[in-house]
Amino acid sequence: MNNPGIFSNPCAFCKQREAERLCDYITDYHRTPIFFRDYRMFKESNEKGNDSSCDLPLCKMCSNHINGADLCPYHYDLYKQAKDIPQHLRKYQHRERKRLIEGDKLNES
Ligand SMILES: [Zn+2]
Ligand SMILES: [Zn+2]
Protein backbone atom coordinates (compact mmCIF):
# COMPACT_ATOMS: atom_id res chain seq x y z
CA MET A 1 0.00 0.00 0.00
CA ASN A 2 2.62 2.52 1.02
CA ASN A 3 5.10 1.70 -1.71
CA PRO A 4 5.99 5.02 -3.37
CA GLY A 5 6.95 3.09 -6.49
CA ILE A 6 3.33 2.69 -7.45
CA PHE A 7 2.92 6.44 -8.00
CA SER A 8 3.86 7.90 -11.33
CA ASN A 9 4.02 11.33 -9.72
CA PRO A 10 4.71 11.09 -5.98
CA CYS A 11 4.32 14.11 -3.68
CA ALA A 12 7.69 15.85 -3.27
CA PHE A 13 7.24 16.15 0.50
CA CYS A 14 5.76 13.02 2.00
CA LYS A 15 6.43 10.73 -1.01
CA GLN A 16 3.60 8.62 0.37
CA ARG A 17 0.77 9.85 -1.81
CA GLU A 18 0.17 10.73 -5.41
CA ALA A 19 0.70 14.41 -6.25
CA GLU A 20 -2.54 16.03 -7.37
CA ARG A 21 -1.49 19.65 -7.63
CA LEU A 22 1.51 21.94 -8.01
CA CYS A 23 2.72 24.65 -5.69
CA ASP A 24 1.49 28.02 -7.03
CA TYR A 25 3.93 30.18 -5.14
CA ILE A 26 5.44 32.79 -7.48
CA THR A 27 9.21 32.46 -7.35
CA ASP A 28 9.96 34.97 -10.09
CA TYR A 29 8.02 37.82 -11.67
CA HIS A 30 8.22 38.51 -15.37
CA ARG A 31 6.32 41.75 -15.54
CA THR A 32 8.01 44.39 -17.54
CA PRO A 33 5.42 47.00 -18.51
CA ILE A 34 8.01 48.80 -20.60
CA PHE A 35 7.61 46.18 -23.35
CA PHE A 36 3.86 46.58 -23.56
CA ARG A 37 2.15 49.18 -25.65
CA ASP A 38 -0.65 49.69 -23.21
CA TYR A 39 -2.03 48.61 -19.90
CA ARG A 40 -4.42 46.09 -21.45
CA MET A 41 -1.58 44.11 -23.04
CA PHE A 42 0.33 44.23 -19.79
CA LYS A 43 -2.66 42.94 -17.89
CA GLU A 44 -3.39 40.13 -20.36
CA SER A 45 0.20 39.00 -20.22
CA ASN A 46 0.01 38.79 -16.45
CA GLU A 47 -3.23 36.83 -16.58
CA LYS A 48 -1.74 34.31 -18.98
CA GLY A 49 0.77 33.51 -16.29
CA ASN A 50 4.20 34.59 -17.40
CA ASP A 51 5.40 34.40 -13.83
CA SER A 52 7.44 31.41 -12.70
CA SER A 53 5.89 29.39 -9.94
CA CYS A 54 7.45 26.82 -7.63
CA ASP A 55 5.58 23.89 -9.29
CA LEU A 56 6.61 21.26 -6.77
CA PRO A 57 4.20 18.31 -6.95
CA LEU A 58 1.99 18.08 -3.86
CA CYS A 59 -0.54 15.64 -2.53
CA LYS A 60 -3.76 16.80 -0.92
CA MET A 61 -2.34 16.44 2.59
CA CYS A 62 0.86 18.40 1.99
CA SER A 63 -0.66 21.32 0.12
CA ASN A 64 -1.86 24.43 1.91
CA HIS A 65 -4.85 26.00 0.23
CA ILE A 66 -4.69 29.81 0.33
CA ASN A 67 -7.29 31.86 -1.56
CA GLY A 68 -7.45 29.50 -4.51
CA ALA A 69 -3.70 28.81 -4.62
CA ASP A 70 -1.87 25.71 -3.42
CA LEU A 71 1.34 26.23 -1.49
CA CYS A 72 3.97 23.65 -0.58
CA PRO A 73 4.96 23.46 3.12
CA TYR A 74 8.16 25.40 2.43
CA HIS A 75 6.43 28.28 0.68
CA TYR A 76 3.54 28.27 3.12
CA ASP A 77 6.02 29.20 5.85
CA LEU A 78 7.40 31.98 3.66
CA TYR A 79 3.91 33.14 2.83
CA LYS A 80 3.04 33.51 6.50
CA GLN A 81 6.19 35.53 7.13
CA ALA A 82 5.79 37.68 4.04
CA LYS A 83 2.22 38.54 4.90
CA ASP A 84 3.05 39.99 8.29
CA ILE A 85 4.70 43.27 7.49
CA PRO A 86 5.82 45.38 10.46
CA GLN A 87 3.11 47.45 12.10
CA HIS A 88 4.75 50.82 11.34
CA LEU A 89 4.62 50.07 7.59
CA ARG A 90 0.99 49.05 7.48
CA LYS A 91 -0.43 52.56 7.37
CA TYR A 92 1.37 53.11 4.05
CA GLN A 93 -0.03 49.85 2.74
CA HIS A 94 -3.57 50.88 3.71
CA ARG A 95 -3.13 54.30 2.16
CA GLU A 96 -2.01 52.86 -1.19
CA ARG A 97 -4.76 50.27 -1.26
CA LYS A 98 -7.32 52.97 -0.65
CA ARG A 99 -5.85 54.99 -3.50
CA LEU A 100 -5.98 51.96 -5.85
CA ILE A 101 -9.63 51.29 -5.04
CA GLU A 102 -10.54 54.93 -5.60
CA GLY A 103 -8.56 54.94 -8.86
CA ASP A 104 -10.48 51.88 -10.12
CA LYS A 105 -13.78 53.62 -9.45
CA LEU A 106 -12.65 56.63 -11.46
CA ASN A 107 -11.65 54.42 -14.41
CA GLU A 108 -14.97 52.62 -14.46
CA SER A 109 -17.13 55.72 -14.62
ZN1 LIG B 1 2.45 14.73 0.42
ZN1 LIG C 1 6.55 25.81 -3.30
TrEMBL record:
Name under which the protein is recorded: Uncharacterized protein
Protein's organism: Bacillus pumilus (Bacillus mesentericus)
